Structure prediction request, 382 residues.
Amino acid sequence: MRNLKYLLLFICLCCNFLASATTVSCTNQAGVTPIVNQLLPYSSSLDSLTAPGNPSQYVALYTWSGFEWGWASRTVMCSPDISVNYLQYVVPPAGSVPVKDTVSGNWIFPIPGTGFGLSFYNLDQSNGPMGNFQNPKKSYTGTTTSGGRFYIRVMLWKLPGAENPGNVINFDGFQVVNAIQPVSGADSWGNVPNNGPSLISNTFTTNTAVISGNITLSTGTCDFDNKNVPMGSYDVSSQGANRGAPSPWKDASFTLKCPPAMGYGRTGSVNSSNNTVSSRSAVTTKNRNLNITVVPRTEIIDNTKGIMALNSGGAEGYGIQLFWNPVKPVIFNTPIEQATNAFTVGSTNNIIVYMSARYIRTEGDVQTGPANAVVEIIANYN
Prediction:
């Protein structure tokens, strides 16, 4: 009988440690704004940047040092107080699928249709990059009354391999979320206010920042005057039976007139009391090198050899071949990099690009006549 008493006592003691489920309800505190709208502050004159035209990797253009969009514990009041994980994540607009940059470690969210992107980095407690709801940042574990500072660094990026469609970046609809999730899976939420998206199971969103931007970068696109290259007359009858010899090279060089090279990699120091930029750093990276693309207006005959067709209605059986210097063939519709020294910040630059052209035999019967063709040159800073 004595052993039975000990056994019953042990069972009762164990029962005292069984977890119980808690339902938590929350309300917004008076005078708070749980959902804030944040236009990223940018001055075209004070923050001027020239983005690289076609980078091979993600390039950081501008950093906003840190926005403060509230505190969870000062925004909501929850009862009873429980242990929670503080989570931060981004809900991007449609068409923006985040990519993890292996160099910087940031999740970069493309701004649809622009060739640029944004990243978000939590600065409260356990710092780190923020992904979407599938890859949230856990800043720390506490209670519903223990803080939850919503303090985020934002960066503007140039996407790799993306041509710059323009120097104006307009966007909205990026939602940055501050949420809490019970540590115990048995706990759940009762009545809570709608303070923004809630995409992670059993979370309550305490704060949301809706991000928009209207940013005008300094253009990095170069101009040049239209140029006629006199190819001269070419007597095909003197080129042998197959008329296969090309004509002598003609100089087709041109001068690019490039706008002020403002560089990139600037940081704006954000005054967290009003979320405006109070000062700016100098750029960390100067523009250097040019991306040059040659776009033919006629058919490409052999892209590996830089051969394009002549305009229709004239000579036949020949094309025009373009070479750089002439050392290597022009690859049409593909940016090539012309090396230059780093450009002085704010400098305008005239760059001579050396190119050569000649007639070359292609397929089909030979027909004499006008032998003309047109190409378009696209050039911008790298």
